[in-house]
Amino acid sequence: MVAEGDPGNLVRTIHLLVLSASWGMQCWTTFVAGFVLIRGVPRHTFGLVQSKLFPFYNHIVLCCSFISLAIYAAYHPRELLSPSESVQITLFFVCLLAAALHARWFSPVTTKTMFKMHIIEREHSLGQGVGLSANREAYQRLQEKDPKYKALRQRFMRYHGISSLCNLLCLLCNGANLVYMALLMPTL
Question: Which pairs with CB-CB distance under 8 Å and at least 24 residues apart come from 20-24?
Answer without folding.
Answer: 20/178, 21/64, 22/60, 22/61, 22/64, 22/65, 22/68, 22/174, 23/171, 23/174, 23/175, 23/178
